[in-house]
Amino acid sequence: MSRDELILRLDELLELEPGTLMGAEKLEDLEKWDSLAMVGYMALIDEHFGIQLSPRQFINCTTVEDLLGLAKAPA
Q1: Is the pTM of this model over 0.70?
Q2: I want to staple 20 with a disulfide (CB 3.0 to 4.6 A). Which of 16, 25, 35, 67 is the partner?
């Protein structure tokens, strides 16, 4: 899964129109970013990348780009 595809999946997870997120958005500004969205993102990354994330890994995430870094999504 490419970076762009992952962003589209994150749009879907957060119930946003496709193409809404670009990467620089702050997580605190995203209305739907909450603990349930975090769990959904963790499942998405596990399913598509085989990476099992823990909640601790999100501590320093402040932007969408930070989330993408957890997935190590290719450009």
Answers
A1: yes
A2: 16
